[in-house]
Amino acid sequence: MNTSASNPLTEKLSFTDSEMTVFLRDGRKLIVPLVFYSSLARATLKELNNYFILGDGEGVHWEDLDEDLSTKGILLGNTHVDRVA
To answer: Is residue 67 a contact partner of residue 78, using CB atoms and an 8 Å limit?
Structure first.
């Protein structure tokens, strides 16, 4: 089994005003709309870029936003979209 496929690891992130690109250690890039994660969608570029990689790349943490995302969750398409009633 390919361990990079079963255990994806984040190497770094980059942002535009509407997307987050996740660069994985195995060479893949994931482009994710920021609206999938409401706290990221509301954040400034400065706040978005103030992240650190958790563990060996298993996740990402934004101190300013009190937000944590797992690399596997991002890859699987898990979202944190606020629902307005």
So the answer is: no
pLDDT (tens digit per residue) in 28-57? 999 999 999 999 999 999 999 999 999 999
CA atoms of 20 and 80, how far apart (whole Å) = 14
Measured CA to CA, the distance from residue 37 to residue 2 in angstroms comes to 29
CA–CA separation, 63 and 22 (whole Å) = 18
Contact 2, 48 (CB under 8 A): no
Chain centre distance of CA 15: 10
Choose among 4, 6, 24: nearest CA to 14: 24
Average pLDDT over all residues of the chain: 90
The DSSP bridge partners found for residue 30 are 22
